[in-house]
Structure formats: structure tokens, C-alpha cells
Amino acid sequence: MIPAVRQEKIIDMLSSNEIVSTDTIMKELSVSVSTLRRDLMKLEAENKITLLHGGGVRLSQKSVELNISTKLNLNQEAKERIARRAASLVEDGDVIFMDPSSTTYPMIPHLAGRNVTVVTNGISHITQLTALDIPCIMIGGSIKKTTNSCVGPLTESTLKTLYFNKCFLGASGFSLSCGITNHDINERVIKLLALQNSSQPYFLLDSSKFGLVTLVHVADLDQYPVLIEKIPEELKGYGNFILCS
């Protein structure tokens, strides 16, 4: 097994478990101590993992953008609760925009069989939408591999001409001091256009992202409704949070 594949498997293991021992990883991958050490040192240098005392490994809490397949496996229960509540806000005949986040993706099954049209720049999203026979429109552009989505001038120019009843957006992190933030400047432009062109915009944020500040500011926390499965203590009584139970 080549190093890149092994390292991706390590990330997949960590996305399903908060902490995994090095012994468990070594047995799962059938590798030597020295091989595993090299893989872990590389992943730590890339800020993807954190090595713990006692031989434990976990995903890094630092501001590093994970790929969409890894993010879909994180905090699944929380994201499902948020997705169900978000889908309940969609009304018959709505045209909605859904960005390519791992928090909007679980909405898709809840839209099956309904009279809605979904516009997205997410390749993973459009694949699932078409599989469930949900009317949808794909916005093209330059491919961003990490999020499996389209970004850039072509995406932006198309989005400027479209209007939505509602939009549902994810984000990389949120905090009281910095508001809602994202890793990518190009994605920020897309989110701002969707917010501007939507009658009712919503952010979908699972509480594990609280306190994480990433590259660019997208919106203030009290600027738009935020769907969340658990309101952090520091934010109770603040902003426009919709609790998803």
C-alpha cells in the first residue's frame, strides 16, 4: 500500500473515532512501527492529526480544511438533526441553494419526493440529488478537489443571475469574536452571493465548530438564522439560533 493511501485510511479511521491508539492503526493497516511513525509524522507536519502522549492519535483541532468524504463522517448525529430541521423549512414550490458543505448534504434525502428545485455547486450534492430524482441545477466552474465543488469566476457569474426562496450554507468555524468564518476566499464570495440573492438565508453549523476561526469572515453570528443542534453556553441568549432537537 502506497503512503498516500495509508495516510488517507488513517484519516478515515480518525473521522469515525475521536481517539485511536497507534497499536490499533498498526494492526488495521498491517504496517511496522517505523512505517506508521513516518506516516504519522507526515500527517502531523501537515496539521491533519495530533499525536497524544501514551500512543493516541486524533484529528487536529487546528484550522485545516479536511476533504468532503472525511467531513461527512464527522459529527453525523448532530448534522442529521440539523439537516432534518433545515429540510422542514423548505416549502412546496421552493427554489433553494445548497452549498457543498457536509452539513447541507444530509438534507438531500429529506427532500426526496417533494416539489422543490435545488441549485448547488457541489458535485457530491448533485450526484445524490440526481440519484434521488430531485429536480436540481448544477452551477459549474473550476473544480475544488477538497470540497468536490465548483468555484471561481464562472460559478460566481452564474450565481449572480439566480434568485432563491431560501439558501442553506455551511461554514468552517464560528466564534463570538470573529463570527462565521471559512477556509476559502472563493467560497466566501459564493456564500455572500447566495445570501444576497435569497429571501430566507440560513447557516447550518454543528456545535463542534464553535471556537474555530478560519481564514475569512463570512457573516456576523447575529446577522442570519443559524441552525444548530446544541447552543454553546457562551452563546446562549445571543444571536438568532434555531435549536434542532
Radius of gyration: 19 Å
Derived structural class: alpha/beta
Distance between the termini: 43 Å
Low-confidence stretches: none
Number of strands: 15
Reading side by side through the largest sheet, how are the strands ordered? 6-5-4-9-12-14-15
How much of the residues is beta strand, in percent? 15-25%
Mean pLDDT across all residues, rounded? Answer: 89
What's this model, at a glance?
The chain is of the alpha/beta class and 245 residues long. The chain contains 8 helices and 15 strands.
Can you walk me through this structure?
This protein has helices spanning 3-16, 22-29, 33-45, 68-72, 76-88, 123-131, 153-159, 185-196; strands spanning 20-21, 49-51, 56-59, 95-98, 117-120, 136-138, 142-144, 149-151, 164-169, 173-175, 179-182, 198-204, 216-219, 226-228, 241-243. By secondary structure, the chain is α/β, with parallel strands linked by helices. Helix content is 33%, strand content 23%. The strands form four sheets. A seven-stranded parallel β-sheet has the order 6-5-4-9-12-14-15, with helices on both faces. Strands 1-3-2 form a three-stranded antiparallel β-sheet. A hairpin with a 4-residue loop joins strand 7 and strand 8. The longest helix is centred in the N-terminal third of the chain and has 14 residues, at 3-16.
